[in-house]
Every structure is written in C-alpha cells, then in structure tokens.
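Notebook, student rotation project (T.W.).
Task set for the rotation: take a protein with a known small-molecule partner, predict the structure of the complex, and write up what can be learned from the model alone. Partner molecule chosen: zinc ion. Sequence and SMILES entered below by T.W., checked by me.
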Amino acid sequence: MRLYPALVLGALVLPLAAFANDPHSYAQPDQVVVTHLDLDLKVDFPHKQLDGRATLTLDWKNPQATTLVLDTRDLKIASVEAVDAGGGTHALKYALAPADKELGSKLTIQAPRRPHEVRIAYATSPDASGLQWLPPAQTADKKAPFMFSQSESIHARSWVPLQDSPAIRFTYDAHVTAPKDIRVVMSALNDAKHPLDGDFRFDQPHPIPSYLLAIAAGDIAVRETGPRSAVYAEPSVVDKAAREFADTEKMIETAESLYGPYRWGRYDLLVLPPSFPYGGMENPDMTFATPTIIVGDKSLVSVISHELAHSWSGNLVTSAAWRDIWLNEGFTTYVQGRITEALYGKRQADEETLLAIRALQKGIGTMPANSQRLAPEPRGVGADDSLSSVAYDKGSWFLRTLEQRFGRKDFDAYLKGYFDHFAWHSITTEQMLAYLRANLIDKYPGKMGWDEVKDWVYGTGIPKDAPIPDSPQFDAIDKERAAFLAGTLPAAKLDAKGWNTQEWMYFLDRLPDVPKLARMQQLDAAWHLTGTRNAEIGMRWYVHAIAAGDKAAWPAAAEHMSRIGRLYLTLPVYGAFAKTPDGLAYAEQVYARAKDGYHPLTRQAVERLFARAKAKQDRIAE
Ligand SMILES: [Zn+2]
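Predicted structure of the complex:
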C-alpha cells in the first residue's frame, strides 16, 4: 500500500501537499491559510456558552480563490464580515452545511476580494463537545462554577470557527471577559498576579495547531513552584498540588539538557476538577492535568513529565494529521521515560515501561490490523480513536529500539537535531522517516535495516526482537503472584509493604481476568484495597474484584466511578460491571447519578460501552 507517496522525498520545508491530506477537516489550506487568530469572548456561565468574535488573519495561497472554508461544530453564527486594512468592514455571504456526525458543519464563506481578515460573530452551544461547564457542586470547593476546554483531537471547532487541522499553525491573542473573582487562563502566557477583575488578555506568540487552543475559568488560586512555573488549582487543592509538582523546574532542566532549550517561556500547570477526561493535556504554557495524579508521594507525576515532553514532541514538532499522531505521542512517551529515569531513577522508568509493554502485548492482538500500525491507513480511523496505546506505547518502544541499536549518545544527538530541524512545523510520518534515514539509519550503517524500520511503522503487531527492560522487582512480584494464586502463599504474607504504586499496578494487572472470589477476598482483607484513594490501584482492583463476583466491593467501585471522570480510570470499571446483567444494571444506576459530572467525551464512551454490552447480552439471551 502506498501512503502519501509524494511526501517521502525528505522536503526540508513544510510542503503544501501535507495540507491536503487531513480527512478530519473541511479546510482547504492549499487555497488559503489562517496565520493568526484574534479572539474576543465572554464566559457566560448561566447560559453555558462562550460568545463573541473570532477574527482570522488570512494568507491567500491561490490568487484565484474566492471562498474560505472553516470547520465548526454546533456553533451559532451571527455574522461574517471582511475587515479591510483600515479596519472598515463589510458583510460576507456564508453557508453553514448540515452537521456531519464526526466532522461537524462546514462553514463556507464567500470572499471574492480575498480580504486580509475575516471576522465571525458567534456563540457556542451548551453541549459543545470541546467544553465542559461544571456547576459549583461538581467542583472541589463547591463555591463557583468552572469551565474548561479539551480541543484535542477535533473539538476546537466546537468553540472557535477555524481551520481545525494540526497541519495548520497560527499565533493567537485573546480578550476574555468573565464574572468578577473568576480567573481565566489560556494556552498562552499567563500572569499569576493578574487581578480577578473579569477582564483578561492573552498572547500566544508562537504558531500552534488548533488542537492546542485552550481556555479554562473558575475559582482558581496560584502557587509558584519555580522561576518559570506555577500551579493553578482550586484553593483547597492548590497547596497539595504545589507539593506534588515541586520538581517541575528540575523536570524542565532535565528535558533541556537532553533536547535543547525550552522555547515557550513559562511552564504552568492547571489542575482541573476530577471530571477532566484525560491524564493531562499539553496545552502550551499551561498544561491541564487531572487531580487523580495527586497521591502525596509523587509516584504518578510521570503524567507531568509526559505533558512537559510535549513541549518538544507535539507542540514544537507536530504531527500533520491524526493518522500521524504517534509522532506526538510515541516520541513524547519516550522522552517522558528519559525524564523519569533522570529524576526518579532507572527502576521507576523501567517499571513504567514494562507496565505499558505488558498491557500492549495483551491488547494489540485483539485490535483490527489497521489499528495495530503506527502509521495506519488514514481513512476509516476516527480522529479521537487514533490516540490509542499503539501510538503511545508501540511508538515509544520503536524509539527505545533505535536508542538501543545506535547507542544513547548518538541517538540523543539525533533526536535533538530532529527537534531543531522541524521546530514550529507540522510533519507527516514520511517526512520523519526521510529524516531518520538520512541522519541515523544511513549515517551509521549496519545497525538497523530499513526493512526493520518499515516493519515497526507500517507492520502489525510487535516486531519479534523488540527490547524489553529487566526488572528484578517485577520478576519477584511475578513469583509472589503465582504462589498466592496457587494457594501456597497467603495474601498477608505477600512482600507488599514496600511496593510503590507501579509495583501494585503490576501485581494487579497480571491477575487472571476472572480471579477466584476467595483469593480476592483474602487479598482485600490483608491489604485493604477497597476504598483506596489511589485511583490507579483502585481501577485495577475493582476490575478484578467485580470480575471475581465480589459484591462487597461494589459500593466503593461506584464511589470511584462517581468521583473520577478520567476515561482511562473509570471506563474499565464500567466495562467490568457490564459483563453480567446484574452488574450492567448496577452500573447504569451509578451512571445515571454520576453523568452530570462527566465530560461529554466520558459520557459518550460510557454510553457506547452500555450499548455494546446490551447488544451482546441480547445475543446471548436469544
Ligand atoms: Zn501525550
């Protein structure tokens, strides 16, 4: 199969052809490209909407073009006008197409005189897929409402009309008004000392792709954690968060020593309410993070290493389409491991790697062949679906393989050169491969064949000789688990007192899919897993306890599911319940109570899971 064949030429500048290949955007960047966005928005909590204006600066690529096509989803468009150089405006004709379920509504603007700027007045829908509006009851402090965005993958279009493709980069500035005492933050330079006067201005001077547009507003306090970093969170959370993330400056310095200067100015962190559907989101200058990583012992801060690593892989060098997303996530997971190793030691880094490897080995064989590829054939893969463990864990495994073959010194120099070479560009897998061939594979012959590279990138499954790190700790846990399951080692005699979070995760991950009930009860009696506040451990425990039929764990599992909206930690527990009719009925009750606190993405995922489970049970009943 030929994929993007014209691009395997190793072009050094962003080729226009890269633009035309994003099946998840209506934009026509070979005609006209947005180079700057100016936002003027009001945060309207009572109506759950942002309303105002977006002014797009345009670079017309085709001198004959007469239309500007934008991506939108559920936006109410009030007017579209052209802005001339003197600031004068005149109305433009436009048409909003009926909504496509995945892509939203194409907005076609007639612009026969190819204006320098186009201004769109609009408001978002209360159900915007990229925004979540939380009433005070669903925040930690229960005092003020909260709103936040999650634009990746193709949800920026639900709060700004734009060319919503990662191939297109633009700078932005914004003026945002909000009620007094509410703090607004964005994926731009934020001022920790800004008065809470309801009037905020932001500037992002670097060109970013649309999925990195971000905004949040709420009762948000700030603590400095270093010369260029601060933690933003609700007042009751901010001190705990600042302690957990006290190593942020050290993380930045570690990444800089490997891959060159941090180029974004500040690196601030916003801790969101627990409904945030992901672990973290690498919004430039202001990472958004889940509170589930605040466990008191820094054992889960690798999420922050990951989001920081995106400042190089993803935000600086960006995948040009969702099909290429492993260039963001695989590279970032690799860099994350290097930061973890430098700061917290090889033991923890290897343990995190092994956890991911074992999960991938278990899951990859059950995926459709195209989803097992780092660079899948682009059609038919949803933009959100492309963010799978293959992109993250097979991608980083490939980079660890390269590191092992070429040696750390040469590979580090190569990777630093790659980030410099493609800085501020969006690139395809094939551009990355052309650079890899010239600057690593052919430069040091005899270390890795080109066929092996192609097998990693375009092949299914995991290549046979993929390197796996040693972990004496995990080997010892394998032995203990086996003895415990065989009944020769009582639960209370497990050598688990000193286990860190990763070691508990590993012990639980490799229990049988349906363990014996008596064994799970013994384990819980000895180690009190039911009710744990560590959600990584809790998710794994509840999945196995429910599968074993341990109804005593159900109420605590329900509490976990209601408290946490992070997809990765809550969906598997729903999945465990959905395997039996009783469990499914219980999970549906839990969901009915919890869903108002969930992000639209989490609601969608749980409802899809219920539908599949019901279809399956109906088939069994027939
Ligand atoms: Zn990531």
